[in-house]
């Protein structure tokens, strides 16, 4: 069974939004993503790339969709990142954690910070403009 995972890697994460331009600007300004060419669809999309192989696909929300936005969305009354569910986020490791977090706060982004029991790893949780959960980490434990 262990061989089943060989050669598999994460390709992209997608986020649906009513304003993909606003969301794109956030990820470009906050994390340094760059916009890349994308195929044409019958709806608007923006593809962003970080590093050599990680992509973020921002997809125009279908105005006729019956599905509501997630409970932690921009339309939700809950905006405190301390309430971010454990399983509802994407995490990025950042080389200068403290400067990165200060930059977020300087932009008026509400941040919840904590240190892991090892005393060395730090985490900060926050939301993008559409209410998607994000985490930045000073290190990523390898097991």
From TrEMBL:
Source organism (scientific name): Genlisea aurea
Matches recorded under Pfam families: Glyoxalase
Alphabetical list of PANTHER family matching this protein: GLYOXALASE FAMILY PROTEIN, EXPRESSED
Superkingdom of the source species: Eukaryota
CDD domains: VOC_like
Protein name as it appears in the record: VOC domain-containing protein
Cross-referenced Gene3D superfamilies: 2,3-Dihydroxybiphenyl 1,2-Dioxygenase, domain 1
Start and end residues of each VOC domain: 9-139
């Amino acid at each position: 069974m262990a061989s089943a995972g060989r050669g598999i890697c994460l390709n992209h994460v997608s986020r649906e939004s009513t304003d993909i331009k606003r969301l794109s600007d956030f990820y470009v300004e906050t994390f340094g993503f760059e916009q890349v060419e994308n195929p044409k669809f019958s709806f608007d999309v923006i593809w962003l790339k970080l590093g050599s192989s990680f992509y973020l696909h921002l997809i125009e929300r279908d105005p006729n969709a019956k599905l509501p936005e997630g409970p932690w969305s921009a339309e939700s009354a809950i905006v405190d990142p301390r309430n971010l569910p454990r399983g509802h986020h994407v995490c990025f490791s950042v080389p200068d954690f403290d400067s990165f977090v200060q930059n977020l706060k300087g932009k008026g982004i509400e941040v919840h910070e904590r240190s892991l029991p090892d005393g060395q790893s730090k985490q900060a949780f926050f939301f993008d403009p559409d209410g998607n959960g994000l985490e930045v980490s000073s290190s990523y434990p390898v097991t």
